[in-house]
């Protein structure tokens, strides 16, 4: 779908230019998943301000922070464009909770991964159906698993391209962009939460800790929920 020249060109452009160029190459079938984190708020701002032809959606797991809902509502008011919301299947959640308990994800890594699968991965797969390019806010410094990613990566399992325009940004660049462009973000970031997921599974981190250390902090796992099957 992309020529070598187009890939090289995309990788050389700044954030806004690269998203414009991407939409020029693929006029329909581009989708962006936002977790409402800082990186995703930056990308949302570029897409919505420029009315780019990109479907923007988020996953409501049912266990998010109250602040997520406030930010989602404020985004809708600010940009006058609604972010689509995908929910898990009710019967999946009911069966899980009735079998494993309301907080069953604390009991084992398998339980936790099953909860992430039901509440995140399955709705994500539904949202991505038919998409050609999936834009993400992934950055390589966020975790070891993300260091081998490319800016434009073929996702074999989902049969689509992933475009990661912030891949080489460091966290200081994210904070500077947010300040310079007056981007709204979660108030939790100022309280030590860097990577913010579901409320029961996220804690604040200490300065110098790995940004993903606050996710599933009770586990020694890879700190991933299966949304991004990094190589
Ligand atoms: S982050 Fe926690 S509550 Fe959210 S889907 Fe995963 S295990 Fe379930």
From TrEMBL:
Q: Which reaction is catalysed here?
A: [thioredoxin]-disulfide + sulfite + AMP + 2 H(+) = adenosine 5'-phosphosulfate + [thioredoxin]-dithiol
What does the entry's cofactor note say about binding and number? Binds 1 [4Fe-4S] cluster per subunit.
Domain Phosphoadenosine phosphosulphate reductase: from-to ranges: 30-204
GO MF annotations for this entry?
Answer: 4 iron, 4 sulfur cluster binding; adenylyl-sulfate reductase (thioredoxin) activity; metal ion binding; phosphoadenylyl-sulfate reductase (thioredoxin) activity
Q: Which InterPro entries match?
A: APS_reductase (IPR011798), PAPS/APS_Rdtase (IPR004511), PAPS_reduct_dom (IPR002500), Rossmann-like_a/b/a_fold (IPR014729)
Give EC number(s), comma-separated: 1.8.4.10
Pathway recorded for this protein: Sulfur metabolism; hydrogen sulfide biosynthesis; sulfite from sulfate
Q: What is a single cellular component term in the Gene Ontology annotation?
A: cytoplasm
Q: Where does [4Fe-4S] cluster bind?
A: 115-116, 198, 201
Recorded superkingdom:
Bacteria
**Alphabetized UniProt keyword annotations:** Cytoplasm, Iron, Iron-sulfur, Metal-binding, Oxidoreductase
SUPFAM superfamilies named in the record: Adenine nucleotide alpha hydrolases-like
Q: What class of enzyme is it?
A: oxidoreductase
What is its biological role? Catalyzes the formation of sulfite from adenosine 5'-phosphosulfate (APS) using thioredoxin as an electron donor.
Write down what this protein is called.
Adenosine 5'-phosphosulfate reductase
* Species the sequence originates in: Chryseobacterium salivictor
């Amino acid at each position: 779908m992309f020529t070598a020249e187009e890939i090289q060109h995309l990788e050389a452009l700044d954030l806004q230019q690269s998203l414009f160029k991407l939409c020029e190459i693929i006029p329909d079938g581009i989708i962006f998943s936002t977790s409402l984190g800082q990186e995703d708020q930056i990308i949302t701002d570029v897409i919505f301000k420029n009315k780019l032809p990109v479907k923007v959606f988020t996953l409501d797991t049912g266990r998010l922070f109250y602040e997520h809902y406030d930010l989602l509502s404020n985004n809708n008011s600010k940009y006058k464009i609604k972010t689509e919301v995908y929910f898990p299947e009710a019967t999946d959640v009911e069966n899980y909770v009735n079998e494993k308990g309301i907080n069953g994800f604390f009991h084992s890594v398998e339980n936790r991964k099953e909860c992430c699968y039901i509440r995140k991965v399955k709705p994500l797969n539904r949202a991505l159906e038919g998409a050609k390019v999936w834009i993400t806010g992934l950055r390589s410094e966020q975790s070891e698993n993300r260091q081998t990613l490319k800016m434009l990566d073929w996702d074999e399992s989902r049969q689509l391209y992933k475009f990661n325009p912030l891949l080489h940004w460091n966290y200081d660049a994210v904070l500077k962009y947010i300040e310079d462009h007056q981007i709204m973000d979660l108030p939790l970031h100022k309280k030590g939460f860097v990577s913010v997921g579901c409320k029961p599974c996220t804690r604040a981190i200490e300065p110098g800790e790995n940004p993903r250390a606050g996710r599933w902090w009770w586990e020694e796992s890879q700190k991933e929920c299966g949304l991004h099957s990094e190589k």
